[in-house]
Amino acid sequence: MKKTKILFAVVVLTVLFVNCTNKSDEYTDPRGTDYAGSESCIECHQPQYEMASHSSHFKATAPAIPENVLGDFDSKNHVFIYDKNTKLVMEKRNDSLYQVLYKNGKEVEAHRFEIVFGTKHAQTSVYWRSNNTYELPLSYYNSIHNWATSPGFPADKPYFDRQVIKDCYACHSSNISSKSVNQSSEEKNFMSMDVEDVINKKTIVYGIDCERCHGPAKKHAEFHLKNPNVKAANSIVSYKSLNRQQKLDACALCHAGNDGMKLKSRFDFKPGDNLSDYYRDTKSITDTANFDVHGNQFRLMAQSKCFVNSDKMDCITCHNPHQNASPNLASYSKICMTCHQGIEHKATTLKMMPAKLLADNCVECHMPKKSSNAITFQLSNSKALSKYILRTHRIGIYPAAKK
Ligand code: HEC
Ligand code: HEC
Ligand code: HEC
Ligand code: HEC
Ligand code: HEC
Ligand code: HEC
Ligand code: HEC
């Protein structure tokens, strides 16, 4: 009798103890208790997780640990010369990476890589200064396998004061919280009642994760953990139930430029919401001839006859939302052919490229690569601006192809 009582007590205590440790180990998402975090999706959605966790979306921002940072820190390609007395050097010190400014051979200032943006074409980094992030003057570009000025930065003198504002994170991360505080009393003057945004580091959810696209999913995950026999999705927005505009809006949120008039934060967007409740079109958006190939896939695609004259084209027509854009151009030809079977090109076109080759290269002629007007950069010791080249999403007939 006594033995069973003791045993019972031990069991109760063990259960309590295990529960307690579980509680403290439990992941709490900075977005709040409605969110479960991507790791919790693995056990039921392994394929989607495997794909998405390797995608550029997941890496759109990341902590600047050496594994995540592109570029050379010790070979010949790690020095940028501004003038004969001034250079910026990429340096590894212990486990941290820095951009270090030297004047006449003397170190003047050093800023640590803290957060990286991007991996595919380019990577830019930021450092922390008084609870805000500032862009480092040099970025890494895959097209030249080298460092060059961050977009819009000068090549004749280093510049450390470009704040990377919350807007950047709203397209490149899944959460970041900031609050407005009055400036410290020394800085305050009577004429301006300046308030400054300060970012809470601990609230950053790096990259574009599952719940950034699918909305909060804690309830969904908990339901299915408790009800393993239920096979139909519970407590989650289904993309299948959305209309075409809602599906487009879920991608256009971050792929339709950044010049609308802001009504609500992008961070508040959930699938099924209307983008028109977040951004109002402004004059620059009606300037349709000048849409940039960078960051504006939606509006370019929306100008194509394919989009206008068919009622089904959206981003998912050509992209798996959990994977990067396929580099295999022939795979897109197959998609073109679902709507353009039996397409016959003129003899002059076929002279440029034989029919067999043409069949695999629709994209090369009809979605050609174009240089961005928004993004340019300069190499060390060079006055010339280098171009940033992306494929246009305005599907059409281009003069280069006509020649
Ligand atoms: C305990 C298992 C379980 C966990 C954990 C889980 N899900 Fe699910 N989920 C399901 C089941 C079951 C379905 C329905 C069958 C299917 O579509 O795979 C589903 C379906 C979905 C769908 C498709 C909905 C539709 O109808 O189109 C999405 C999106 C989704 N889950 C997202 C998530 C995300 C994001 C997480 C992590 C935060 C997550 N799930 C965690 C079990 C789970
Ligand atoms: C919260 C903002 C956001 C949303 C929502 C979003 N994207 Fe993106 N997307 C980005 C950013 C930022 C990048 C660039 C990431 C990088 O390279 O650092 C990107 C990159 C991509 C790429 C290129 C990836 C590669 O490396 O080839 C594709 C394709 C893409 N997005 C498609 C989509 C589609 C389709 C949707 C809708 C289902 C969508 N995106 C929704 C922000 C977003
Ligand atoms: C860039 C936005 C985006 C991200 C990030 C994303 N999804 Fe999805 N997901 C979608 C879209 C859009 C669909 C609908 C695809 C369709 O209709 O073909 C989808 C469909 C799904 C489905 C339904 C089955 C399927 O594969 O079509 C599941 C399950 C799912 N996602 C889980 C996840 C999980 C888990 C993660 C994180 C590891 C994740 N998603 C990340 C946009 C995203
Ligand atoms: C409106 C959404 C949006 C905003 C705001 C935005 N970006 Fe992006 N950014 C994108 C998208 C989408 C891509 C990838 C596709 C492209 O270049 O068209 C991208 C690409 C990039 C890349 C190249 C990524 C790669 O893998 O090649 C870098 C670096 C970058 N952005 C940094 C920034 C910084 C820094 C800011 C703020 C100054 C910023 N972005 C603001 C949407 C945005
Ligand atoms: C969802 C169906 C659909 C898909 C997918 C599609 N198109 Fe189209 N496309 C159309 C329709 C509809 C038109 C308009 C035909 C018309 O008005 O006579 C069109 C028109 C065109 C035109 C003529 C454009 C002009 O300005 O005169 C070209 C070129 C074209 N498509 C190429 C492509 C290529 C290349 C792809 C693949 C990358 C593709 N399309 C994918 C439906 C589609
Ligand atoms: C008709 C097919 C088609 C449709 C529809 C389409 N894309 Fe693409 N997308 C492509 C092709 C082709 C590429 C270039 C692949 C390459 O060159 O490696 C691409 C590349 C991209 C990239 C990477 C840019 C780069 O150069 O790295 C992004 C981002 C992207 N698409 C976003 C979108 C978004 C968002 C939508 C919906 C608004 C969309 N796409 C609709 C065919 C399409
Ligand atoms: C070598 C460049 C090139 C390639 C590759 C190419 N096209 Fe074209 N395409 C053209 C040119 C130039 C025209 C306009 C003259 C013509 O019709 O031949 C055209 C016209 C078209 C049109 C409009 C025809 C009309 O009557 O309005 C469509 C649709 C089209 N192409 C689809 C495709 C598809 C689908 C593929 C891939 C199977 C493809 N093209 C591959 C250059 C190309």
UniProtKB/TrEMBL annotation:
InterPro entries assigned: Multihaem_cyt_sf, Multiheme_Cytochr_ET, Paired_CXXCH_1
Alphabetically sorted, this entry's keywords are: Signal
Report which residue ranges the record marks as coiled coil. Answer: none
Signal peptide location in the record? 1-24
Q: What protein name applies here?
A: Doubled CXXCH motif domain-containing protein
Superkingdom is Bacteria
Question: What are the Doubled CXXCH motif domain coordinates in residue numbering?
Answer: 312-342
Q: Which organism is it from?
A: Flavobacterium hydrocarbonoxydans
Pfam families attached to this UniProt entry? Paired_CXXCH_1
